[in-house]
# Entry
Amino acid sequence: MTIRLPLAKLSQWQQVTYCCALLERMLPNYQMFSQAMGFGETKVLRNQLDLLWQWLDKSQKVKINYDAQLVKLEEQTPDPEAFDSFGVFPAVDVCMALMSLMQGIQSKESDGLLDVGKLSENSVRYFVELTLVQDADGQEDVVIDEQDILEHPLMEWEIATQNELFYFLKHAPESKATCQEAKQMALEERLSNLGIEIE
# Structure
């Protein structure tokens, strides 16, 4: 993995906020796959992410039945082998990230929370690799190395966004205003982490 931020130094609240902000950038990838393939309901994932934002707002005292939510999420998770489309992989990454986040909150273990950043980076890395291979179509002996991936604008943007969110949250108070600002930072460009326009 390219991004190695010391997320364990953040409080659980800060980690969850970081994850929710990254999920805002991942969710449109699921929506595009869902619309294209006629599978799943984006609103289920949207509602779950909204519920987590509400949970972060300490004034709301929101209780989440994680087991019930995980069952709902499982029903929305596509089987990669059932779809002949690249879009299934980032869609699965969104579901896995949401699953890891909810399980991480439930168990109070930070491992699940750390997976969200990795899954977001994975989505971008895989997409960039695919794009570079397609761009080089027809060229013989093309080797795509790590530097090519790291210098791609989407990868640079992913690294910059994760860093920006981390350093913002590290010193931010645990408040609704911090949540709003983190969400705004994630959605500033109105694009998903793969460059898909957010409707």
Remarks:
- Helices lie at 12-37, 42-56, 66-76, 88-107, 110-135, 146-150, 153-170, 176-187.
